[in-house]
Design brief:
- It is a single chain.
- By secondary structure, this protein is an alpha+beta fold.
- The protein has ten helices and five strands; from the N terminus they run ααααββαβααβαβαα.
- Strands 1-2-3-5-4 form a five-stranded mixed beta sheet.
- The longest helix has 30 residues.
- The chain is elongated and about 85 Å long.
- It starts with 24 loop residues before the first helix and ends in a 9-residue tail after the last helix.
Length: 354
């Protein structure tokens, strides 16, 4: 049994900055959860290509890849057998991959995420409970926003307070989660004015100076810690004022729904030079910057890699091993780069990220 308690420090903290009274552990927790979902996918490569190995070698589908007009999964040594056609073999492999992938996709979207766990929606809900908003810029002036607004207004509560918060929201007596007072939708796509990105880069510039001219990695002194804290607080205040429509630089936005043609073409028709647009989405759009939203590209890459290795080796076990190893390396690389990006952009020191 593990029991966690809170204790008061026996030695008073001596810091060159004033404590804001807001717990940073909620932000660190959300950042770690974000890192965990960065490589979450809709299909699992071991299942997909394990099925290929099962059907091709164990069940005997590879015997149907011959050039004979009549093929079977069983053959006799007394019968004539023509050479195996590589085109037929690749066609069989891709057919199994496609069917297995579609089946996994269907089970995940229709069954698993509805009945058990939807990692992306759970992350968005976590942001609401912890009162931590996530501002993701996929491009210079386009990104995704998760409005982390706790309906009860507080997140730093004990277990009893947390249970009371959830019960209040479950009963329908709590305020809404969304930016709009009458809506629970709290995930948005953003088309932002260029002035906001310029202001963000200006406020973020001192952090770049620290990373280029400061001490080596993991050895920041108190002066640089002060700079990090100042940048963190300044960026937080800037984004909070923008979201609350209280920005003194005249930066504004409005909440709209995308038109059908905009959804079809995956673009925005309205001018965002002076005013940003927040598009209400279905709750999972921020997955576009994760593996989750790029499943088709990853799935095609894995399939082509498997087929390429098979053309060279004609060995399904080697195909499986190479595909899984390359996929794992890509996942590790993506996780590491994503972690570095969180450290750089969210101004959270890497020692706090798991």
């Amino acid at each position: 049994m593990v029991k966690m308690t809170t204790t008061k420090p026996s030695i008073p903290l001596r810091a060159p900055y004033e404590d804001s009274g807001i717990s940073v552990w909620r932000t660190i927790y959300v950042a770690n959860e974000w890192n965990e979902i960065q490589t979450h996918r809709k299909t699992q490569s071991p299942i997909t290509y394990g099925a290929v190995l099962l059907f091709m070698q164990v069940i005997g589908f590879e015997k149907m890849a011959s050039s004979d007009p009549y093929s079977a999964m069983t053959s006799s040594s007394l019968e004539y057998q023509s050479e195996e056609s590589r085109i037929f073999r690749i066609a069989l492999i891709l057919s199994i991959v496609l069917i297995t992938g579609i089946l996994q996709w269907f089970l995940l979207i229709v069954v698993w995420e509805r009945c058990f766990e939807d990692k992306l929606r759970s992350f968005a809900d976590l942001c609401s409970i912890t009162n931590v908003s996530v501002f993701v810029l996929a491009q210079a002036n386009f990104g995704y926003y998760i409005h982390g607004h706790c309906p009860t207004g507080r997140s730093d509560v004990d277990m009893g307070g947390l249970e009371l918060m959830l019960a209040t929201e479950r009963s329908g007596n709590a305020p809404r989660r969304g930016i709009m007072a009458d809506s629970d939708r709290h995930t948005y796509r953003m088309a932002l004015p260029a002035a906001l990105r310029k202001a963000f880069d200006r406020l973020h510039a001192p952090l770049l100076d620290v990373s280029t001219s400061g001490p080596s990695r993991g050895q920041l002194d108190s002066v640089h810690y002060t700079t990090l804290n100042d940048v963190y607080q300044t960026l937080n205040r800037f984004l909070m004022r923008f979201i609350s429509r209280d920005n003194n630089e005249g930066l504004r936005f409005k909440i709209v729904r995308k038109r059908a043609l905009e959804d079809l073409l995956d673009g925005e028709f309205d001018d965002t030079t002076l005013e940003g647009l927040f598009y209400i989405d279905n709750g999972n759009s921020f997955g576009d910057v994760l593996f989750y939203g790029n499943e088709i590209q990853l799935f095609i890459f894995d399939a082509l890699l498997f087929c390429l290795v098979d053309l060279l080796s004609q060995n399904l076990i080697l195909d499986l091993a190479v595909t899984l190893i390359v996929g794992k390396l890509i996942s590790i690389l993506r996780g590491d780069l994503g972690r570095r990006n969180v450290v750089k952009k969210a101004v959270i020191h890497e020692r706090f990220l798991l």
